[in-house]
Write a structure and sequence with these properties.
heterodimer; A: mainly alpha; two-stranded antiparallel sheet; 17 helices; 77% helix; globular; B: mainly alpha; 73% helix; 1% strand
Chain lengths: 323, 290
């Protein structure tokens, strides 16, 4: 058999490795090429106005930006506390067996198609909202609740990674100083994992901003300024998906321009999340040192070269004693 | 929690009590989350499973989905998915091998990872827009399995890269050293030792990619098309509805609740099976090297 020289293999693999960057560039180029000329033509003032009447030549998308912002904030209000709570339970509280059963269940949540979420929004959530609060049911509130559930796997998954990255010695140090388990979680572990959790929230935000199908199905999609959570809204994604089927000419270009705005928001969020995660190490050590500083003991313990396995037993003992 | 101690009315909770309250709240939130998940799955299956019959799976749809089944749609979904995975796997695996075996952490790996991370965050509707203008219009593929599959390939690439990288990293260094000491070239040690050893993990990534492809709607509706065909697609240039798109049309247009629930059940069962398999495979694989 002929041996392929390693140099050739390396080059070929490098080309493959650059493919995702290439795809990203390709997407950027094509979305901008289709949408940017329209923004240029109508001007930024018109593009960010509140009048969306594409057939009459008005391409203002600011109400869609408001719509996206409203449902995203709503989704985070619901998704962040639940997401972090689940992550804390799964890393700090649950016995190994419970964790082994719950973690895959949560991950499966991530796989359920967004159209299924949207459908359940139509058949379960919207009637419930109509009954409890009145109104049409299809609303920013419905969108927020559905998205709040949909961002959970993202927030939980990344928060778990962040919590698990907090060294065991931090917990031990805190427990050894007489803190309860909860004080340890609240004042030592969570602050130490802060940057990772921030990244989790930002990525969850990206997920909520970018979600399309579920949102279309439950938010009502009328272009208006929502006066209350029970009013219908239209998001950026919904604007694209709803009108793409029949749009042509400037109208279609305006949808691509909407895509540009969406794309820029997502890229900004990704970069932000990346930065937050990049600073993890430095922040972790600073944040953990701060609450423990009155005694100074935890920080000292934290740097002590104790092998992980040896310390596991006392930690568990402390844990059992604590509860 | 006794109230015996004579304390001012608004006394603070003792740390122990605070802990009890906090933990109860956290567990309650966890329980509510799991209950929501269980509700979603059970609700769909209870409403839809009775309608998932052999006829439903083996017949073409008639009367715009009100009657008949989903055969051509299921075949179209599989075709789009298979194409996407077949294209994304070599690219993703190649990237993972390059990142783990051929380079030290540095500027190049940061660029590659940043690209993959950003791609992972790009919303599916953007992939849909891009696939539409690039594959459907510019390259002239029309609404087709080919355009849909290529778009999905781009979309699942980051998933496959990340899982493959994790799998390859988990292969112990000693495996590589033994192969090299027996006279294998670097590449031989990779494709004869490292990749086969990491295979279960790599397959997990592929399975997850399949899951994402099947459940995707926004990216395929503008690339593979949404017209309902009564015949099974025979060429990659045929357009097709995927199951998710079909379900979306049934549900949104209110065509048939019965068929909508049935289609949703098929989707949910497929996704559950796929994710459980992927998860079990990865768990077993990672255990071997722990």
């Amino acid at each position: 058999m002929i041996r392929i020289p390693d140099k050739v293999v390396e080059r070929a693999l490098l080309m493959m490795a650059l493919s995702s960057m290439a795809v990203l560039s390709l997407i950027t180029v094509f979305i901008f090429r289709e949408g940017a000329p329209l923004v240029w033509k109508v001007g930024l003032g018109e593009f960010f106005s509140t009048t969306w009447r594409p057939t009459a030549g008005h391409f203002g998308i600011s109400l869609m930006i408001v719509g996206s912002a409203v449902v995203t904030v709503g989704a985070l209000v619901i998704g962040v506390p639940f997401g972090i709570a689940c992550a804390v339970v799964l890393t700090e509280l649950a016995p190994a067996k419970v964790r082994a059963a719950l973690k895959p269940a949560i991950e499966i949540l991530a796989g359920i198609p967004s159209v299924v979420y949207g459908f359940l929004g139509i058949v379960v959530l919207m009637p419930a909202i109509r009954q409890v609060f009145g109104g049409p049911g299809a609303s920013a509130l419905a969108g927020s609740i559905i998205l709040g559930i949909m961002v959970l796997p993202t927030i939980i998954g990344i928060s778990i990674d962040a919590l698990q990255a907090v060294p065991r010695s931090y917990r031990e140090g805190s427990l050894a100083l007489g803190a309860t388990e909860w004080q340890t979680t609240w004042r030592v572990v969570l602050p130490a994992a802060r940057s990772g959790i921030v990244a989790a929230v930002i990525l969850g935000m990206g997920r909520a901003v970018g979600e399309t199908m579920a949102v279309i199905m439950v938010t009502g999609n009328s272009v208006q300024m929502p006066g209350s959570p029970l009013d219908p809204v239209r998001t950026l994604t919904a604007n694209i998906a709803l009108e793409m089927g029949y749009a042509a000419g400037d109208h279609r270009a305006a949808l691509f321009a909407t895509g540009i705005v969406l794309f820029l928001i997502i890229m900004a969020l990704n970069t932000l999340a990346n930065t937050a995660r990049g600073t993890k190490k430095t922040t972790a050590s600073r944040a953990a040192a701060a609450p423990a500083s009155p005694g100074g003991g935890a920080a000292a313990l934290g740097s002590a070269p104790v092998p992980d396995k040896g310390t596991a037993a006392p930690a568990n003992a402390a844990r059992r004693e604590g509860s | 929690m006794s109230r015996a101690a004579p304390q001012p009315v608004r006394r603070r909770l003792t740390p122990r009590q605070a802990q009890r309250v906090a933990q109860a709240v956290l567990w309650a939130m966890m329980a509510l989350t799991v209950a929501t998940l269980a509700f979603i799955v059970i609700y769909v299956l209870r409403k839809g499973l009775p309608y998932v019959t052999w006829t439903f799976l083996s017949q073409p749809p008639t009367d715009s989905g009100r009657e008949g089944g989903v055969l051509p749609i299921a075949v179209g979904t599989l075709a789009v998915t298979a194409l996407g995975v077949a294209l994304a796997t070599p690219l993703g695996l190649g990237t993972a091998i390059y990142l783990t075996e051929y380079t030290a952490e540095g500027r190049m790996t940061r660029v590659i990872r940043f690209g993959a991370d950003c791609l992972a965050g790009v919303p599916s509707i953007i992939f849909g827009l891009f696939g539409f203008v690039f594959f459907v219009i510019t390259l002239g593929f029309g609404w087709s399995i080919l355009a849909g599959g290529l778009t999905l390939a781009f979309m699942i690439l980051p998933t496959i890269i990340r899982t493959s990288e994790e799998a390859i990293r988990a292969v112990p260094q000693s495996h590589r050293e033994v192969a090299l000491s027996l006279g294998a070239s670097k590449w031989e040690s990779i494709y004869k030792v490292v990749v086969p050893t990491g295979l279960p993990g790599i397959v997990t990534g592929i399975i997850l990619g399949v899951g994402r492809s099947i459940s995707e709607t926004a990216a395929v509706i503008f690339t593979a098309g949404s017209s309902l065909s009564h015949v099974v697609p025979t060429s990659v240039f045929d357009g097709t509805r995927t199951l998710s798109v079909h379900f979306y049309q049934l549900a949104r247009e209110g065509i048939s609740a019965e068929k909508a629930y049935a289609t949703a059940s098929v989707l949910v069962i497929a996704i559950l099976a796929i994710n459980v398999t992927a998860y079990a495979l990865m768990e077993r694989f990672m255990k071997r090297f722990r």
